[in-house]
Amino acid sequence: MTNKTLFPEGFLWGGAIAANQAEGAWNIDGKGMSVADIAMYKPDIDIKDYVKQWHIGLEDIDNAMKATEDAYYPKRRGIDFYHKYKEDIALFKEMGFKTLRVSIAWARIFPNGNEEKPNEKGLKFYEDLFKELRESNIEPLVTLSHYEMPLYLVNNYDGWVSRDLVDMFVKYAKVCFERYKGLVKYWLTFNEIDSVFRHAFTTLGVVEDKYANKKEAEKAIYQALHHQFIAAALATKYCHKIISNSQVGCMVTKTLTYPETCNPDDIILAQRDNRNNFIYTDVQVLGEYPRYLLNYLKKNNIEIKMNEGDEAILKQYTSDFIAFSYYMSMVQSVNAEQREKVGGNLVTGVKNPYLPISEWGWQVDPKGLRVSLIDLYDRYRKPLWIVENGIGAYDKVEEDGSINDDYRIEYFRKHFEQIGLAIDEGVECMGYTSWACIDIVSASTSQMSKRYGFIYVDADDLGNGTYKRSKKKSFYWYKKVISSNGADLD
Ligand code: BG6
């Protein structure tokens, strides 16, 4: 059944992946080692213990660098998108994608991050990829940094704690803008820049174990984050200069928190968490550190070293649009200790009795997406782009080869209805790219069996399989959604 569509004409429907989870080819054509190549698949890990999944210490780095066997480092092989991208793009085209979100692996362009000259083979790979997308009428949306900085910068510079990384990143960004100016119009700077406190290693190259205590690690993280803010602002500046019609977005995890009750103490706790989530967009969209953060830093004796002119850079080069990921909502309660907890892509929170949870313990909340869209739009009045949203599930291949992922269809249907309603309430939404449109390696658990795609990839957690692609039931459903511009969700 086709209803009147609430989605605007030209709405950018599509999907999203990231280089480190899809490409594989981790040491091919001159690519340097990245932070993602260190991430281990641990069969005995508690998939609901988010903090443990992400923890990487000095010993882990050392072991990974020495490892001769790659089986337990799934991001090194991804889904071999590096060699199979043409086949995958043909499938995205068949679904009718208007856009595809991909990222560039910095270590493919500058293997250690600090070289004089870029690696031509890396540049060529992305040039061919973007050309293929253009020829397929798919608009590329490109993230400059999605959890894949060169490992050399961790081992030799303390990651983003070092100011030197600003220059290196800006140089890398400029090389990309120059090379891809005729091919890419939409750019994102740092994926989920707010994840710095959830996994400092992957986002900032900060190894927390190196610091004397939590306080010192926190100081280092704020310093490193400041450098990323400056690098993002400067990348935005040069992108506009080099590519005249470009649009650059910041990218955050939308972490909506509800109060458990109308007890004002619950409300204050939830408000605190929601404000903490706004820090990153406040800086990148409003162009300044919010007063609540400045007060916190002062009270806690955290001094961020800023260069002269940093404040002006933040003020001048703000984001054109806000891109965000949305997977779940959270609950805060003064009685949290006595409440049942759930996991998620955040830290553990109080369980919401009104919401179902995924097999990984993530609370599924489509209406929370509507609330998030409205909150973000009301606060910033900037166009929004949902660049990640989806459900990780164990999919079953039937004897006849079919994959009947009705739960995924149901998940998307409910979220699309809510996006439509938010648009109806005046929210400007540019597009939607599902995470991940094809099965890829999970960011947190490094599992292949945590599947998000409309396209199934025949591979297991240890890399066994043919890597053959096949269409799930949701493939056909999403195709219909796109061709009706969101009117047909049946
Ligand atoms: C987001 C990341 O946080 O969540 C993605 O930007 C990630 O890289 C996605 O894959 C889903 O998380 P996971 O751990 O299930 O892969």
Question: What form results from the Cα inertia axes?
Answer: globular
Element-by-element helix/strand order: EHHHHEHHEHHEHHEEHHHEEEEHEHEEEH
Q: Helix fraction?
A: 25-40%
Unreliable residue stretches: none
CATH H-level superfamily title: Glycosidases
Stated plainly, the CATH topology is called TIM Barrel
Mean pLDDT: 95
Q: Give the N-to-C terminal Cα separation.
A: 6 Å
Biggest beta sheet summary = 8 strands, parallel, barrel
**Whole-number radius of gyration?**
21 Å
**Quantity of strands, as a count:** 14
The top level CATH class name: Alpha Beta
Estimated structural class:
alpha/beta
Biggest sheet: strands side by side, in what order? 1-2-3-4-5-7-11-12
Number of domains: 1
Q: What is the number of helical segments per DSSP (H or I, 4+ residues)?
A: 16
Beta strand %: 5-15%
